[in-house]
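Pasting as-is:
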Amino acid sequence: MNRRDFLRISGSALLFGPNLVARGWAAEQSALAVSEGKDYGAITKNVINALGGMKRFVKSGDTVLVKPNIGWDRKPEFAANTHPLVVKAVVEECLNAGAKRVKVFDNPCNEARRCYENSGIAAALQGMKNVEMKFMDEQRYKKVTLNGKFLKEWELYGEALSANVLINVPIAKHHSLTTLTLSQKNLMGIMGGNRGYIHRQIDDAMADINSAVKSHLTVIDATRVLTDHGPTGGRLSDVKVLNKVIASTDMVAADAFATKLFGLEPNAIAITVAGYKRGLGEMNLDKVKVVKA
C-alpha cells in the first residue's frame, strides 16, 4: 500500500481525532506506517508524515510530552534506550507543528543523570528552544483513581497528565519478564511508587495505566533491537540492527507489528493481549492497514 492509498483509507479516522483507534471506537480503521533506512531522523519523519503529519496531533500552542525509554545507563549502540536521533526527530516535528513546549522525561531504573547523558538523548536535544528535558520530581506525582482490573489507584506524573498531547516513543527490545517491552509497557515511565509491585500482574497493570492515560501517537524505535538480556542489555552481540521505525495511533497494532520483527506472534505477548482485550487497539495484523513510508 502506498501513502496516497493509506491516507484515503484512513481519512475517516482523521475526522474523529488521533485517539480514534486507541479508544477502541473504530478498530477497522487501525493503520500503521513503517519506514526503513540508515538516516534515523528521516525515517522517523517519514512514518509521521505517512500518518498525515504531526499537525494531525499537535496544534499551535500545545504542550507535548514525548515519552522515550531512557531507563538505563547505556550508550545508544546497546539498544537499551530509545535512539536519540528518533527522539530528536519526533521533537522537531512537534515544534514544527506549533508546539509551545515539548517535554521529554522518564522515570529510569538506573541513576537518572547517567541515563539521560549516556543514552545520548540529552545531548541530542541540547540547545533546542522550547524543549525541556528534566529529571522527574517526586513532588509532582499525583494519586489517580484508575478502578482498573488490577490497579485501583496509582501515583502518576502530573506533567504527563496535564500535557495536551502524549507521544509514546519506546524502543523495541527483549524483556526477561514480559518477553518484549514495547509501547504499552513504556508508560511505566510515568508511574511513581513501588513499581516492582505491578510485576505481579503486569499485563493487566499496564492495560489499566494505558486505559487511563492515552497515547495520541506511538512511534516505535526498531532501528536496532535488543534480542536478549533485556531490558538492561549490555552486550553488543545481543543487538540486531534493523534500521526501522514504526508509527501508529493504535499502540496495540504497533506493538503487534514490532513483535513480528522478533519472530514472535502478537498473542505470545501478554501485555499486547491484555491491551487488545481492553479495546486499546487491534492485535490481528490482518485487520491493520500497513503503509511503507
